Structures are given as structure tokens and as C-alpha cells.
Amino acid sequence: MPSHFWIEALGLVAACLTTSSFLPQAIRIWRTRSARDVSLTMYLMMSAGNSLWLTYGVLIGSVSMIFANATCLLMVVSVLGLKIRDMLRPNLLAEIVAHEMPASAPGAPVNSNEAPQTPRMPPAAA
Fold first, then answer.
1. Distance (Å, rounded) from C-alpha 36 to C-alpha 31?
2. Is the pTM higher than 0.70?
3. I want to staple 83 with a disulfide (CB 3.0 to 4.6 A). Which of 35, 50, 70, 76 is the partner?
């Protein structure tokens, strides 16, 4: 039977892998400045689940469970906070587009489909 040390070490490795799995999502949200495509229900459920697992880890005194779930809870709650922030900003896309729009003359065409047509001259009378 493995010693308690190796069991906790296994738990810590598992904790590092599962906890760090949220990092790519958090980084993507910070880079794109948008959490609109993130599931609110999933992150609410994950927050509740991590809170319960953290409580369980404290009650049984498992260092790996406490470490994993406290760290994971921080990441999940940060993503959840960004999701809620985006939900409260309904015009976020319009703000981004306005900010990214090139400074050009009013009414200038944005793409070739909107280029003004040159007026055609009527045929000359013979």
C-alpha cells in the first residue's frame, strides 16, 4: 500500500492539472476582453462545486484538496466576474467596433461594396 505522502503527491499533481485547465480560458478572456461566449451556467455550477470541494477538503484536512479547490475557485470566480461584467455591458461590441474604426472622412466608404458609383453621362445626341 502506498504511503500517505505518495497519495497526497498524486492528489497534488491531479490538482495542478485540473486547476490549470482554467488558465487558457482566463488568458483568452483577458486578451480578447470578452467573456460573451463563456457559459454562465457552467461557471456558476463550477463555483458552487469548487466551494463545496474546498469545504470538504478543509473538513477532512486534505492539503491537495484545499490547494486545488482554493486555487481553482479563484480562477473560476475571476472568469465568472468577467462574464458578469460583459453581461452588464450590452454595447460592448459597438464600443469595440467604434474604437477600432479608422479615422476617415465622414461618409467615406468602408469597403469596396460601399464605394460610390461614378455617375454615367447620357449618350450624346447624334
1. 13
2. no
3. 35
Q: What is the mean pLDDT of the chain?
A: 79
Residue 105, pLDDT > 60, answer no
What angle, 0 to 180 degrees and rounded to 10, lies between the N-to-C axes of helices 4-20 and 63-87?
10
For the chain, the straight-line distance linking the first and the last C-alpha, in angstroms and rounded, comes to 107
- Please report where in the chains the cell 497526497 appears, as a residue: 8
Residue with cell 454562465: 40
- Collect contacts of 42-50 with beta carbons under 8 A, ≥24 apart: 43/76, 43/79, 43/80, 43/83, 44/80, 46/76, 47/73, 47/76, 47/77, 47/80, 50/76
